[in-house]
């Protein structure tokens, strides 16, 4: 521990420095200063923990120095040494929370005892802080252990001894305790800034916990199969299902506004904790039935109108239109058909699978060489993934339709407009200060977004998103090198409102942070 003696009388300072055996009371190094100015210089360079300070000094006095210390280094313990018994000084020292106020002349043992107490107080404070940090870290680890244990239980992977220890401590519900189990799905993001799964889960948990705080309920959230999350809610008295539905409507609305995304929450009747594995599988089935990717709160299987047929009645007509070169008409008709199925409440996994099969059957009939056409149509990994994803959701099905009819209409011979890349680069340059979206570029140059993405990747070797970020970072690099604009302003000039996101993107592309780049430019000058 380091101590600083401040006294304008050299002999007094030297006498204190060598007249006390500092090491016996826990002081390793002792520094001396003959003025407040000199003291500040030492404090700024060394990790001083205790100051012995005279009051009467030329220039800035001891009280003024201590006031500066408390403002900039509040952790330093200050002991006042003075030959003046002026009450106003003592009063000021008390206001500044000085550890002690010693009147001179004072014997070395008296000063030694005062410093000893200061050392003990500092050690106790440091120990308390260390214990608090250890406690926080333990709570964090325990919370993660609870989340992992519940997730593993739901998926049938259980470490029995560990799990039952948590139950004995009341950290997770007892087997017979009734709980609510939720599945929360991120449908789509409405912002370019996407939250990290763990942080998103933690924040979801905090929002839900605050909502149910008055009911004294416990909430645990965990990452399931991103972008899906699980949440368990339990307590002595659970809300009824109607109340729960109202609360979840509020929570879902809050999630969508706070995270800037669209979410769906799936819930079933509360059940004993021991039955949650079965409940979890039911929730997954409810989620998978939401092929229209609608947001909201769902409290059971989606109801369908059994009186409406989900089969496509015009497979042959679509096939004929494709043969005659009217692919766009097929795309529009198929899209409207999907929308009608969604609006009528018929749409679910089975309905979408039947539609998928009927549409591809129409395409097969329209092609001249059947299997050969399909091999060319889905020849790349990206194209084949479109084929596989068609049954995942209505949005994926529409993407597949758009791709197939475009390829059919172009007779599988896609030609790239001569100035396509130039137009894309010009658009990015003209909109550098904005958040540039793929759909905006596609609309500007009159191309389908999916087609633009595929052709751009084929021509440049990188995705459109990668190219936009790289272009923005090169512009930022140029501004850092050629101007003295603040880095935060440079971030705004290339369309970033979140400085951390900008710094992360810059380092990922350039290998160093923008701050390191700026320091390097300054040193070269």
Description:
A hairpin with a 4-residue loop joins strand 7 and strand 8. The chain is 57% helix and 12% strand. By secondary structure, the protein is of the alpha/beta class. The chain contains 22 helices and 11 strands. The strands form 2 sheets. Strands 6, 7, 8, 9, 10 and 11 form a 6-stranded mixed β-sheet that branches. Strands 2-1-3-4-5 form a 5-stranded parallel β-sheet, sandwiched between helices. The relative contact order is 0.05. The longest helix has 47 residues. The radius of gyration is 35 Å and the shape is elongated.
Q: Topology of this protein?
A:
Elements: E1 2-6, H1 10-19, E2 29-33, H2 36-45, E3 48-54, H3 62-72, E4 77-82, H4 87-95, E5 100-103, H5 108-154, H6 160-168, E6 178-189, H7 197-211, E7 218-223, E8 228-234, H8 241-259, E9 261-267, E10 271-272, H9 276-289, E11 296-298, H10 315-323, H11 327-343, H12 349-366, H13 371-377, H14 381-389, H15 394-409, H16 420-430, H17 438-444, H18 449-460, H19 464-482, H20 487-493, H21 499-510, H22 514-524
Parallel strand pairs: 1-2, 1-3, 3-4, 4-5, 9-11
Antiparallel strand pairs: 6-8, 6-9, 6-10, 7-8
Helix pairs in contact: 7-8, 10-12, 11-15, 12-15, 19-21, 19-22
């Amino acid at each position: 521990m380091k101590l600083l003696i401040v006294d304008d009388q050299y002999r007094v300072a030297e006498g204190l420095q060598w007249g006390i055996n500092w090491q016996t009371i826990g002081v390793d190094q002792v520094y001396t200063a003959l003025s407040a100015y000199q003291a500040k210089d030492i404090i700024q360079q060394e990790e001083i923990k205790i100051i012995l300070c005279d009051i009467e000094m030329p220039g800035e006095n001891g009280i003024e120095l201590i006031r500066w210390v408390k403002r900039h280094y509040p952790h330093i313990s200050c002991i006042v040494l003075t030959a003046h018994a002026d009450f106003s000084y003592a009063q000021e020292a008390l206001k500044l929370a000085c550890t002690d106020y010693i009147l001179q002349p004072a014997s070395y043992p008296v000063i030694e005892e005062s410093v000893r107490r200061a050392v003990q107080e500092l050690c106790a404070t440091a120990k308390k802080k260390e214990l608090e940090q250890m406690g926080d870290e333990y709570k964090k680890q325990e919370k993660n252990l609870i989340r992992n244990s519940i997730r593993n239980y739901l998926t049938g992977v259980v470490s029995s001894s560990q799990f039952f220890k948590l139950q004995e401590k009341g950290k997770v519900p007892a087997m017979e305790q009734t709980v609510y189990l939720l599945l929360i799905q991120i449908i789509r993001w409405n912002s370019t800034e996407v939250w990290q799964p763990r942080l998103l889960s933690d924040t979801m948990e905090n929002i839900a916990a605050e909502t149910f705080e008055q009911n004294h309920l416990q909430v645990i959230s965990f990452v399931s199969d991103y972008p899906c999350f699980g949440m368990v809610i339990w307590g002595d008295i659970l809300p009824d299902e109607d109340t729960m539905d109202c609360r979840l409507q509020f929570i879902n609305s809050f999630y969508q506004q706070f995270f800037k995304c669209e979410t769906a929450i799936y819930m079933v009747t509360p059940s004993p904790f021991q039955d949650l594995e079965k409940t979890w599988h039911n929730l997954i089935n409810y989620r998978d039935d939401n092929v229209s990717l609608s947001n909201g709160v769902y409290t059971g299987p989606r109801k369908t109108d059994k009186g409406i047929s989900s089969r496509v009645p015009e497979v042959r007509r679509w096939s004929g239109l494709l043969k005659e070169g009217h692919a766009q008409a097929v795309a529009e008709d198929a899209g409207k058909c999907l929308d009608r199925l969604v609006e009528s409440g018929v749409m679910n996994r089975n309905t979408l699978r039947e539609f998928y099969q009927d549409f591809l059957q129409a395409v097969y009939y329209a092609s001249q060489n059947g299997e050969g056409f399909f091999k060319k149509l889905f020849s790349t990994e990206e194209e084949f993934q479109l084929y596989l994803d068609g049954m995942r959701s209505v949005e994926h099905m529409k993407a597949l339709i758009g791709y197939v009819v475009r390829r059919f209409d172009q007779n599988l011979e896609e030609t790239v407009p001569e100035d396509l890349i130039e137009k894309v680069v010009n658009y990015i340059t003209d909109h550098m200060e904005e958040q540039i979206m793929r759909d905006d570029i596609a609309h500007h140059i009159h191309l389908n977004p999916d087609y633009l993405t595929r052709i751009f990747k084929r021509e440049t070797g990188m995705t459109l998103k990668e190219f936009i970020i790289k272009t923005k970072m090169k512009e930022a690099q140029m501004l850092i090198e050629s101007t003295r604009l603040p880095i935060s302003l440079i971030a705004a000039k290339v369309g970033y409102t979140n400085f951390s996101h900008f710094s992360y993107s810059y380092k990922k592309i350039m290998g160093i942070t923008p701050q390191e780049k700026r320091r390097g430019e300054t040193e070269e000058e």
